Queue: 2 jobs
Job 1
Amino acid sequence: MKRCPTCSRTFEDTLTYCLIDGSVLSAPFDDSSDNARGGPTEILPSNERRENAPPETSPASTITAMYQPAGESRLEPRGTIAAPQKKPYVLVAIIALAALFFLISISVFVILNRASYSYNSFLFLRRAPIFLIVAIGIVVSLVRMRQHPRASLLTMLAMVLLAFVGIFFTLLLQWLTRDMSAAGANRFYDVARVFQDFIFAAETVLFVAAAYSDRRPIGQLRSEGT
Amino acid sequence: MDATKWTELLKSFLEQLPSFLTFAACIVFVIARWKRYPRVSLLLLIALIADLLHQIFFTILYNWVPDWLLGSNYDSTNIRNVYTVLGLITNTVTVAVIVLYLLAIFAKRQPSESI
């Protein structure tokens, strides 16, 4: 058995913390021995505790073990202050949104400095569904950020990459090749297409990683009765 | 199709080799995780296969369209309109695939699943 030093209640050996006040329980002891009736508590080395622990019995005065994950208490032990949880996701999300804003700003700048508005507008029209799903994906990620931070962050990164590809191939590529010869521009486009494909591959990996992150296996969910 | 067209098609596929290899690796990964996450893996597998087929189909289509346009008597405005409609269709199918990915990412999640 184990005893709570604060409320003096006894618990089964499987528990680490008191279910009433969250205090760390004493070392296991045998409640049938004299030591348990007021004698000094014998502290056993950690590797011997399990071997010398008494068989599990549940006397009337003992609180039956409930589900209590190892190392976690239902109440914070007295005298300890929980460390603030670091949330790097919010920072990375802000950086991702800033990058998107930067890309859009460059696009607007390029549009305003080009004469061929109509050609660019047709190129943008072709990519319109992509820009729409990027906007939806970013909004969904932001809404779910608090519940599923990793998945939302990975999704947001994939969406920013998608937006980057859209803007790059709609405007920036033309702008970069404006002074090149036809042969040079063709070579540049070939390289750009391979570059685009690497970005698509990265997006796919990000989507797959996002789908599995922050999830628990189905077996674990079943065992917890959810 | 003559030999030049086949070469161009092969070149187009070679340019997309990184994403084809990624699809193959991701499909293997998804199948390996099937037992632990069956619903997510199913949605992901559908999305990956749809993405792969989309990429193969539109690569062949974009390889064939220029020949078809050269054979027709379309002027530059018509050609631009054909490419705009084709681009819209391609990107709409891409959006459908991305929606499948988003479903796989966010569907059937419980708030308690966040770690």
Job 2
Amino acid sequence: MAHLLYLLYLLLYIFIIYGDPMHIMEGFLPAIWCIVWFAISIPVIALGIYKLNKLVKEKREILPLLAVAGAFIFVLSSLKMPSVTGSCSHPTGTGIGAIMFGPAITAVLSTIVLIYQALFLAHGGLTTLGANVFSMGIVGPVVSYLIYKAGMKAKLNFYLVVFLAATFGDWATYIVTSTELALAFPAGNVLSVAGFLSSFSKFVAIFAITQVPLAIIEGAVSALLFKYVIEVKSDILVEMKVLEDSVVRKIRGLSA
Amino acid sequence: MSRKLELIVLAILLIFVAQFIYVSSTTNAEYGGADDKPEGVIEEITGGTYKPIAEPIWEPPSGEIESLLFALQAAIGAGVIGYFFGYYRAKKNYENKLGYKGKSKPEGDRHSL
């Protein structure tokens, strides 16, 4: 028993050192919850693969942009950054993909990154892949996408909208991760509203402060990347109905 | 060309760096996430009874190997981004210079998406 506790302590320690708010560590969800999150995530990934195939078939010229959106997730999710709390975490980078291609395709891109990290970095895990795809690949991008659409409809400054979309997408991801952990580990070991809220507040308290500055940086860098995409390739964004022609002209007018 | 956005992003990054320098020099934070708060939350909630249902198939044997793989991940991503931005930039540049602009406009398919 003492050995077991020591092992558990060791694993938790590894979880805290190498694990991070974004990904739930391998094995750290009971089997039933692994199945639940897979059951929710798999249809979205399937829809994403379908949409991706359709899009690539119809518009081959979007492939480079797709590669850039995927690569952005690759880069940002590899950057473990120190935060105000004295602990490290990393951004998600999913905002760009969500704005350009929508949440379903972004879920596919995120899944690729999550599998890479689960296999080669012991970061996240295969059993928790469904849960991690749900938080990073689905809810985060959905939030980014909705904020982007709402912001553009409200005719706010384009870069501000991208910033807000990416920042809140990042925050949403960690809130969902906290929710997933709290559902699996409610206080008192029985899933009740009070037990859930008690655990949720604990997980959020750890991750909230750490993630806030990183989310802001993610938002800022995403806005900057979008600026460069517009500079070199705005026609394709207009064609994909990500941006209206008038907005592009306005941005160009301001930055030219 | 306006560099306003670049300046704003730079300012945000500088605030972040300043914060890091301040926190890391005034506290002995470990920057592993190993502060007291998150430690043992699952253990605390479950009373130490939870046993992970699986372990990673493979773990990087050391911190060096792990950072190698993280760096590789970032390098692949940065390479792809740099390649396509360079490609588009040069393409646009030559299109403007050689006056290909009209010809190279892709045919928009309004029915898709």
